[in-house]
Design brief:
Length: about 240
């Protein structure tokens, strides 16, 4: 079955070009002209990936992304922003809203298709864990090169899991979850949110989740999604300043 992609943009020319490129690559494409219409289409079609312009009338791309993450049946859907503005602050806002990629228009067709394929493969890996009842009971483990910590944390949060996520990257750490919420973090000498901010960007290493209850003194006060969004924002800000 073809993967479904939703394109949201107020420019009919952009919609047409993207639709042609994606359909030639074998994807099923639906369209919307603004964020409000995009949210309705997303709830109706349940796309496997969303591509959205940032600057749009009515509800813009940033608000639309927030609504998808907070008020839709597909909060973990891969999300790509398109914009004609080379604006670092806008890019940071986009990632903070929950975007996975951010591409400047006009986008090279091969680059776009590569990003789409990569994000869909990552989403499939998350679903394979989420839909495996054996792993749900026994826990699971993996490599950070295949599945990012941000994706693992989102998975545990959305499924309201309790247990300990052990991480071995540049250092060793653990994050304790209670009903999907991070309540304790440690990575090397860092504790709490600082530990999460440090370890989330790790691209090399392994993770292991062991379900169960672990009594700890809480040192993460923010909600899991807010802490994760801040970790991603700090990572993107660091990349932009390099």
């Amino acid at each position: 079955m073809s993967k479904k992609i939703l394109i949201v943009d107020d420019n009919e020319h952009v919609l047409k070009l993207l639709k042609i490129s994606l359909e030639k690559a074998g994807y099923e494409v639906s369209q919307a002209a603004n964020g409000d219409e995009g949210l309705d289409r997303a709830k109706e079609t349940l796309p496997d990936l969303i591509i959205s312009d940032v600057m749009m009338p009515m509800t813009d791309g940033i608000e639309f992304c927030w609504m998808i993450r907070e008020n839709s049946p597909i909060p973990m859907v891969p999300f790509i922003f398109l914009t004609s503005l080379e604006d670092q602050e806008m890019e940071i806002r986009g990632f903070r809203a929950g975007a996975d990629e951010y591409l400047i228009k006009p986008v090279d067709r091969s680059v776009l298709l590569e990003k789409v394929e990569t994000l869909l493969e990552r989403a499939n890996r998350v679903k394979s864990i989420d839909n495996n009842p054996t792993e749900a009971l026994k826990g699971f483990e993996g490599n950070l090169a295949d599945l990012s910590l941000a994706e693992v944390i989102q998975l545990l949060n959305l499924n309201q899991r309790s247990g300990v996520l052990y991480i071995e990257a540049a250092g060793k750490g653990e994050i304790v979850f209670q009903n999907g919420q991070m309540v304790y973090g440690k990575y090397g000498d860092l504790l709490g949110e600082a530990a999460v901010y440090k370890v989330v960007p790790s691209l090399k290493g392994t993770f292991r989740f062991e379900p169960g209850q672990k009594q700890v003194e809480r040192n993460i006060e923010g909600s899991t999604m807010n802490v994760l969004i801040e970790a991603c924002r700090l990572e993107d800000e660091h990349k932009l300043n390099d």
